[in-house]
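[audit] Reproducing an earlier prediction to check determinism. Same input, same settings, fresh worker. If the tokens differ from the archived copy the diff job will pick it up downstream; this log only records the rerun itself.
[audit] input (365 residues):
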Amino acid sequence: MRTGKYRLLGTLLLAGALCLTDCGSTESNADVMAADVQQSALPEDSTDSGSGGDSGITPQESAQSFVLPPLSTEAQTIDYKGSVSVDWLTASSDAIYLLSRERDGGSGILKMKPGEADGEVLQVTAPDGMVFSVMTTDEQGNLYVVAEDRDIEAVMRDDEVVCPTEHCEVWRVSPSGEVAAKLDISEYVKQEVFSPRMIAVAGNGDIYLSTQNDGTAVLAFDAEGNFLNKISYDYKVYTLRTAMGRGRDGKVYAVLWDSIANDGTSVIVELDGRDGHIGDATSFMLRSDGSFYSNVCPGRDCDLVIFGGEGILGYDLGSANIKWKVPAGKLPFSTEGFYPMAALADGRILFLDSNKLHYVPAAQQ
């Protein structure tokens, strides 16, 4: 069965399958509602600061500043005015990157400043037969984007439909749009019979790719694309629901849903690509209806920003407490879909909802 991967995954989502990276969202007409936030003295650390070791990567024209902008409490919804559709977003300290899977027959990236409705097209295009799928930034502001097969053959494996990618690369792109590296990881991704659904880059430059197919696994590579380890666990016990990302300390964390407890318990764990294991559970979050969490990123004033059915949470790992919360009812869109998310230097959280950009005030001291 030959088909377009993203169309198939969208169909699976509508059929009740797990939310995948390509899940679309229905356009929301709800008014933007500002969260109740308190503005106080600015913290000394930057949005993406971390304690990770030296990654061996020289910052490339990064405009990241150690001086944070004023904490913003402005809620905005901006209609994207660009000429190409956008499917994914990420952000550095001073720029937003939008990914288009369909640009002039290829797949490209746009760069814009916060608050803008359109951006400049970077001279970075996926090769023929491939498409950009997911992306993230590192602590220096470099962009990491996954390039994989555009069309693949959907197959059955262990009673589930999987979309195995034959060719997969991770591109490192400087803030100015220069491709600094193309890391071919096809051999390892092909062995796992999966298509990457989430990417995170640790403070030391290690790259993490997650999958849900054939159990649950995360592949870890160093900054040069050398395979480090496969981190796996019993998918009958824990389920990774795409919620994986770098924390403010530079380490990579995942939110696992406890299938055995079946009471809505989600466990936050550290992923150690160097040792190839899952660290001890750092904390727990309870959801009585079993809703899961879909995004993780570093916060301005908290260790992790986590998004899911409950809304947006600012989480402190040391105390295992929710530091602040924007309830789902105060968001200008439904939390039932999948919305790419990024944290901005001014404390707001940015979401992509079809061709709308939602800026949600979410930081407080």
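[audit] rerun output stored. Observation attached for the diff report: The chain is about 5% helix and 45% strand.
[audit] end
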